[in-house]
Structures are given as C-alpha cells and as structure tokens.
Design a protein that fits this description.
The protein is an alpha/beta fold and 761 residues long. Among the domains are: 218 residues, no CATH class; 70 residues, no CATH class. The strands form twelve sheets. Strands 5, 6, 8, 9, 11 and 13 form a six-stranded mixed beta sheet that branches. The chain has a six-stranded mixed beta sheet with strand order 23-24-25-27-29-31, with no helix packed on it. Strands 15-17-19-21 form a four-stranded parallel beta sheet, with no helix packed on it. β8 and β9 form a beta hairpin. α5 packs across α9. The longest helix has 24 residues. The radius of gyration is 31 Å and the shape is globular.
Amino acid sequence: MNENFKDIVKSAISGDESAFEALYTMTKDSAYFIALSMTHNEQDALDILQESYIKAFSNLNKVDPPELFDNWFNQIVANCSKDFLKQKKPILFSDISDNVVIEDLEEETSLELIPHEFVDKQEASRLIMQIINGLPENKRLVILMYYYQNMSTNEIADSLGVPVSTVKYYLSAGRKEIKTELEKLDKEGTRLYAVIPFALFPSLIGQAAENVNAPVFSSVSQKIMKNVNSGISNPHIASSESQSHTISSTKLNGGKNMFLKTTASKIAAAVAAVAVVGGGITAAVIAGRNNQPQPVETSQVSQEDNSVNNENSQPDNTTSRPEASEDTESSTEPEVSYSPVTDFKYEILDNGIRITQYIGSDTEVVIPKFIEEQPVVEIGITDPEVDPLDDYGNYAFSGCDNLTSITIPDSVSTIGKSAFVDCDSLTSITIPDSVSTIGESAFKSCDNLTSITIPDSVSTIGDQTFHYCRSLTSITIPDGVTAIGKGAFDYCTSLTSITIPDSVTSIGFGAFSDCDSLTSITIPDSVSTIGSVAFLNCTGLISIDVDRNNKNYTSENGVLFNKNKSCLINYPGGRKDAYIIPDSVSTIGDHAFFDCKNLTSITIPDSVTTIGESAFMGCFGLTSINIPDSVTTIGEYAFSDCDSLTSITIPNSVSTIGGRAFRYCTSLTSITIPNSVTTIGEYAFSGCDSLTSITIPDSVSTIGDSAFDGCDSLTSITIPPSVTDFGPCVFNQCPLLTIKCKSGSAAESYAKENNIPYVAE
C-alpha cells in the first residue's frame, strides 16, 4: 500500500491535472513493462498503456481505498493486455476442469538452494526474462501477474474473468515450462535450475523491469485526457451497505479541460445493540459485508450443527464465553467489525479453534477470542505438516494485501507456517504473551512492516520468519529465544542494529543475509553455532563483536574468527581499510570477505593453506593479491567478480583452480598457471574479457566446462598434449581465439570439432 496515492487520487477526482500526471508517473514504467512483455511490440504496448489509463482515470471513483490505486491499476493493465491478445487469439484462455491435476504450485524457498552463484543477478534476470518471454501468452501473462504484480490466484481470476482453476492450471504449466528451460541451461553449463527458487522471481523480474521506461506524461496526456473527459456520463452507485458515489463534470481553465469530480459518502453497516439482561454487559453486533452468509468450513462440525450454533450464538457471543463472568476486561475488548462466521474459515480442535483462512475484506482486523463458545488457539493451515498445493491460498492470511493491522487475542498460542506471508500492506501487529510458537515464513514478504515485538514466551524465530521484510527497522528479540532460524531476517534491508540476547545458542544459515543497512551486531557468549553466510552481503556492517566468554567464537578489531583464530569466518563488508590477516589463520572461510567492495588490499600470511569458497567474491576494490606458497586449495568462486583485479600469481602449491575461481575478473590481463595445477575448473576464467593470452602448463590434464567462456579478447592459448579432458563450451564466445597445440593431440581434435582456428606444431 502506498499512502501517497490516497491524497493524489482524491486530488485527481476533484480535477487537479497535476494529480493525473503524478498517478501516471508513479505507475507508468511497471504498466509499460507488462504490456511490452506481453506484446513484444512497442506500439502495441503503448496502445495498451493508453487504454489502461483511459479506463483507470475514467473510473477513479471506484478505487476503494485510494491507497490501493497501484494494485487496482495493475489489474486494469493485465485485463487490457488480455483483451488485446484475445483479438489475435480468441481462445487465449480456456476453462480448465476442476479434475485436472495441477502440479508444482509449491514454491521452492529454501535458502540452501541459493548459494554464491546467485549474486550474479543481472545475468540471472536476463535469462529468466528470456525464458518467460518465450512462454505462450496465456502462461506468460499469469506468470507476470503472479510474480511481478504480486497478485493472488483469486485476484488474477477476477481480473481476467476466468475460473481460479484456469489460473492455477496456467500458473502450474508455466512454472513447469520454466523449470524445463532452466534444466536445459543447467545441462549446457548455466547452473540456474538448482539455485533459483520461484520465490526470487519477483526480484529478478523487477530487475529486468528497471530497464524499461514508458513515455513521459506530456507525450500521451492529450489523447488520454480527451478520452477520459468524453467518457464520463454514468454515475456509479454502490449498494447501501458499502459506498455511493455521485459523479459530475466540472470545467477548469475557462472550459478547456474537464475532469472528474466525485462526492462520496459511506453508509455505515447496520449496528444492533443487544443488552444482556442482568449481566450489565452490552455487546455490539455488526453485520458482515456479505449479503449471503457463507458456510464455515470445519472438519468436525456438520452444516446442520453450524446453523444451530449460528442461530444460538451469533446475536450475543459474549454471554456464552467460558470466562466471561470472571474476565474483567471482556467488556473493553475491541469491537469486531465483521461476523466471525462469514469472515473466517476455521477448524475445531480438541483444545479450541484453529483459524485456517481469512475471507473478509477489512483492512484492520481483530481476530475474535471465541468462536462457537471455543477459544481461538491457532492461526494456521489445515494440516501444518503438509505444504498446501494451492500456492499460498491455504495459509491463514496469506496474500491479504489490503490488511494494514491485525490484533491477535491472548487465547492464541500458535502462529502457523506462512500465516501472514505476502501481507505487504501490514504495518503493525500485536503478538500477545500467550504465543509460544511462530512458524517458518510467518511474516515473510510483509514489505511494509516497520517494527514488531516478539513476546518472551517465544523460544524460536523460525526459518525465514521475517524474510524480505524490507521496511523492518527494529525488532526486539526476547530473552526466551534460543534459536534464530535459517534466513530469519534475510533481506531485511532497513534493519540497522539488533541485539541478540544471552539465551540464543544458534544463528542459522543466512540469518542476516543481505541486511545491507546493518552496521553492528554483538554475539553473546551463549552462541555455539553460527551458520554459513549468516552475514552474507551485509555491506553496511562495520563491526562484529563477540562476548569474551564465548567458547566458540572471538573477534579482533571487529572481525569474526573461530575461538583459536585459525579460521577467519567473516570480515565486515562495510569496512573501508586494507587488512592484514593474522598469522594464526590457516583457513580463510567460505564467504569470509564476500562483497567487501571497499577493501583495497589484503595481505595473506604464509600460515594460510586454504582459501574457501567465494572467499573474496565481489571485492571490487582489490587490484592485486599475492597468494603465498603455503596455499594448496583455492575454492570455487574464490575471486569471482573482483573486477578491478589486474594481476594475480598462483603459487606452485596449488593443484586445482576451482570452478568460477576468477569468473568476471574483467580487468585481469594476464595470469600465470604453475606446473603444479592439474585441473582448471568449470567457468574458472569465464567473463575475463581483458585476458589476451594464456599458457597452459604440461601438468594440466583437465579443462572444465566453459572455463574461458566469454573471454572475447583472448587471441591465443597454448594447450599441451597433457590435456586430454575438455568440457563442453570451453572457449564459447571467444571470437578472436587461435589455439596453439601439438599435431595429433586432443587439443587439435577439440579445435576441429568446435570449428576453432588452430595452429598445430
């Protein structure tokens, strides 16, 4: 939700031309990207863009609430795209039987599937969009609406005018086709299938969209506003239980321009006050929004029993509450502005009620403490042990993108898996002390959640609980928490500081990954386990402090080590200095200096034997580095993306240059490979487009797949007869290359098979 839209929409309705321009400017690029992705034609995309704004500006009075203008407009763009495509393909969408098996709707979200190589987001984004653009129009439109416009399957169905089953079918089929193409790329050497879960598609598609710019308002305003002004005649009259509008035209600037002017009045829902005789309590019963009562889905109560309960309990659900006579605060509980019977789906458990789905439309929700005389004890899904196939549809409040606040009663003990996932308008939430369990991904992608207090009763912050809560600036972790799960705060990009209490014993894999505003963190002596890449890509982090009594970790000058300082675990990414690694270090750990963009020089002592995976990946400031003779292992991606690195000497102690070890070192002009090396890993020097020549020593027997892919300045390479094993695409995209080799060697055969110029001696 964007609060800025509220006032702008109102100004546009009242006739402010600058407000129309503001609405256009704020939404044009996203809309144009969708239209262009669907048509692959600029003029057709502009036609869709124009039609979308004509429809939107002619119906501004229908935006309710105005803050959701962008969501509402996204649906118009999608519908206009569909209408345009159906002119060419009348059977663009066909209804799919409910009996059709819909597979692969479950998202892949584990952070363990997102290793170092995914940091090359630009290339991943390009390849993903290439695949999406190759999908049939129906699947492409559904994929873009779901992942880029963040629309639920129900919203897509409403917008396109097709059954939900049809949307689910095309979403499932589209995903399967994407996976198939990713698997093909994987076999060809571009390893995306294993590392890109669908949960990351919004960011990848969004990156592609950043390069698309629609025309400025002045270029299209005349035609849009002409059609807007000429199409206003019929007032929109809502039902008496929702909203009524009166529309008229008004002339501005001497009659040259005509704009919408709407006066709206909301009719409040009927309220009946019921006095409890002798009890001294008055309860407000407010009618639900739906004219037709919806049956409550339960696993243990028949429809007949439901009707009896509704008749007996709905007029006054306070008198039958077990604790009503003893609970002195019951009369001051917030009034519920909807009927629990029609706004929630739920199940009856042995100990109370489990809310399984919210089906109302209110923006501020107070969960009732009691339903059918039973306490509400869980917010969850039908079976917490099984992932539902209906994407997020079976999670309690998932995808409720109009929801701004939620109040949970103190009867609730469990907030289930993904309970509030994708509630991207949720700004605040109150979790009572009664809650002891918060499931994994419970608040994942709640993009506008700014702060939250976790009660002392909670012992575990689950995997990805606050993943992608990009507006979260502060959070209080109580003393009762013992474990911070995998990716718990991953991509909380506004989080500046956090205090880990003494009760915490483990910090999971990627727990604070990509928290690029985090400047400092203190690890208490209770922590015995810190997962891999816990602070990955924390580019603002300048200091990691460890309690001196910690038995497993220590810090020196803000750098994290294991206790005896034999392994350097993490160097804060925000540091802006040269660094000398202490002599005690024998291992530079995986991702130890990952994305330390400001690191200008590094001194590696003779004590170091192992440079771990992705150890210096993304260290853009490093221009040269000396690897001592003590080093025997250079891990995969060790110096990948060090694009200022001009030279490096590999010592004679190294036998293997790991896969992608020097990938995208775009300033590297020369490199000496010693006689000790037997294997050059896959993609080892791919993208080194300044490398002009290289000599492979007689010790090398294997050159991995795409080892020199994209070295487009490479003019010559000398390959000895010792090399007998060539991976596919070793010299892909090397247009200037000539191979020098021995006559009759495997290198000569490889050159012939791949049409590469060669000189045989």
